[in-house]
Amino acid sequence: FASYDKFFLFGDSITQESYSQQWGFGFSAALQNAYIRRLDVVNRGLSGYNTRQALKVLPSIIPPPGQARIRFLVVFFGANDASVPWGDNKQHIPLDEYKDNLKNIITHPQVAAHNARIILVTPPPVNEHRFDPVNRLASDTKKYAEAACEVGQELGVSVVNLWKAFMERTGWEADKWKADEPIPGSLKLAENDALLELMWDAGLHFYPAGYEVLFQETIKLITEKWPDQLPENLPMILPLWSDPTAWEAWEKSTK
């Protein structure tokens, strides 16, 4: 059988919905299109999950290398962990535990067995104007994004700082921001047009524009860290229909 290594996506509802064609561009769909006939994109997004729940189910999610080989593992949690402690959704995870959970996911023996290229994605910003009641704060998601970056640095894992990528589109400038000032997405400021273009419903899930930023940032990271793993640099699984030399080699290998 033709064997495809996996581009494995492990996250919450933002990951789960990233194959959806309801709006148009989706992250998982775009990634699979880019790696078609080279890697299989596996979406294991679990709506509503925080890192505590993710860690519990990880043994049931990550297959042993003998069953499927994971070449890339995307870990994308934090949007739910960053919920306010008093929220009705009961998804909040304290910041220190969030960091520990990320470390335990990344270093889990079932993950380590694959020796995969790990990409840690920070939680994105939120738009408080779209929550009723507000159960996530813009200032808190900043802290959780920073915590994810810290985990990546500590473990030597590559990070897509999606919070920063989104915020750059709002016009927010980190070097000009003062700690006591509100940030885009906060109720203390007028609703930001860029966030409205990136996220829908409760100011959390992505429009196509948001997924496109995630896709671009992921490909950018692969270009910088693992250029040999870009789609155009990987061989196709099974010969091209028009390549007689490849067909001959493949037929010999299957005898």
Unreliably modeled segments: none
Shape annotation: globular
Oligomeric state as shown: single chain
Q: Mean pLDDT, nearest integer?
A: 95
What fraction strand?
Answer: 5-15%
Count of discrete alpha- or pi-helical segments spanning 4 or more residues: 10
Give the proportion of residues in helices.
Answer: 25-40%
C-alpha termini separation? 13 Å
Order of helices and strands: EHHEHEHHEHEHHHH
Q: What is the structural class?
A: alpha/beta
How many DSSP E strands?
A: 5
- Biggest sheet, open or closed, and with what strands and sense? 5 strands, parallel
Radius of gyration: 20 Å
Q: What strand order characterises the main sheet?
A: 2-1-3-4-5
Domain SGNH hydrolase-type esterase: 9-212
Organism: Lojkania enalia
InterPro entries: Iah1-like, SGNH_hydro, SGNH_hydro_sf
Keywords: Hydrolase
Commentary on this structure:
This protein is an alpha/beta fold and 255 residues long. It is 39% helix and 11% strand. It contains ten helices and five strands; from the N terminus they run βααβαβααβαβαααα. It has helices at residues 13-16, 27-34, 51-61, 95-106, 109-112, 138-155, 162-170, 193-198, 208-225, 244-253, and strands spanning 5-11, 39-45, 70-76, 117-121, 158-160. The chain has a five-stranded parallel β-sheet with strand order 2-1-3-4-5, sandwiched between helices. α6 links the parallel β4 and β5. The longest helix is centred in the middle third of the chain and has 18 residues, at 138-155.
